[in-house]
């Protein structure tokens, strides 16, 4: 699969991530010009994990995104549907409880986690609304969700430059650093097709989340959405 599709097939998306697993973290660092590190720090602050809390990190890939939560003393479960990503993660961080799972059918009981988070993965899920409902189901009353996802730059001139970067510059850069550059053509198109900040907030509310708000990072290139499950 090399083109973004509104009816993303889970096995195709999982296979795509299997192919890029070995160099995924390096490629993201290069393509984001190092900004991904700052974005992940902001996610950690928003999740605000505490010792002994249970955190579900969806689309965790190799577990890089899970490490800030683990360092706080929280019990973090990295979950992903790409077995290739999980294998690389397990090799490098064997002590984390990696779990294979589809965001639309999570393999967890109701009301388990204090916080659920997903970074740069929600737009790759086949059914976004089902995933948001599943995340709500497994979060305990009073718990929270934090979503970090590519979004829509708020300044029109920059939005034009950013779109040109995604569609023209990103694929050749990906070819130089990634083992599967076609995957990054798909990723660029999926970013361009993703809903804007207010639209995603509305979908969170429709899935049952309350007190939904968002904050733009890097001028809206990325947005952090947060919500709570009512007690």
Kindly describe this structure:
InterPro entries: SAM-dependent_MTases_sf, UbiE/COQ5_MeTrFase, UbiE/COQ5_MeTrFase_CS. Pathway: Quinol/quinone metabolism; menaquinone biosynthesis; menaquinol from 1,4-dihydroxy-2-naphthoate: step 2/2. Belongs to the class I-like SAM-binding methyltransferase superfamily. MenG/UbiE family. This is Demethylmenaquinone methyltransferase. By secondary structure, the chain is an alpha/beta fold. The protein is built from 9 helices and 7 strands, in the order αααβαβαββαβαααββ. The chain has a 7-stranded mixed sheet, sandwiched between helices. α2 packs antiparallel against α7 and α7 runs antiparallel to α8. It is globular. The N terminus is likely disordered.
Question: Brief overview, please?
Answer:
By secondary structure, the chain is α/β, with parallel strands linked by helices. The N terminus is likely disordered.
């Amino acid at each position: 699969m090399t083109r973004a599709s509104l009816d993303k097939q889970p096995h195709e998306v999982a296979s795509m991530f299997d192919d890029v697993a070995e160099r995924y973290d390096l490629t993201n660092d290069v393509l984001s010009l190092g900004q991904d590190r700052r974005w992940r720090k902001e996610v950690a602050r928003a999740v605000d994990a505490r010792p002994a809390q249970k955190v579900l990190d969806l689309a965790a890939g190799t577990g890089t995104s899970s490490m800030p939560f683990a360092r706080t003393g929280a019990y973090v479960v990295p979950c992903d549907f790409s077995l290739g990503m999980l294998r690389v993660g397990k090799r490098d961080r064997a002590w984390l409880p990696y779990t294979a799972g589809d965001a639309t059918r999570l393999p967890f009981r109701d009301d388990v986690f204090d916080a659920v988070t997903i970074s740069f993965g929600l737009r790759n899920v086949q059914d976004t609304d089902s995933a948001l409902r599943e995340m709500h189901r497994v979060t305990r009353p009073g718990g929270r969700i934090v979503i970090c996802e590519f979004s829509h730059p708020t300044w029109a001139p920059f939005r034009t430059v950013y779109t040109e970067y995604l569609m023209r510059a990103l694929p050749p850069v990906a070819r130089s650093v990634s083992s599967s550059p076609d995957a990054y053509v798909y990723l660029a198109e999926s970013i361009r097709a993703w809903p804007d900040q207010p639209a995603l907030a509305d979908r969170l509310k429709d899935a049952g989340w309350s007190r939904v708000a968002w904050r733009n990072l890097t001028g809206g290139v990325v947005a952090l959405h947060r919500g709570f499950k009512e007690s």
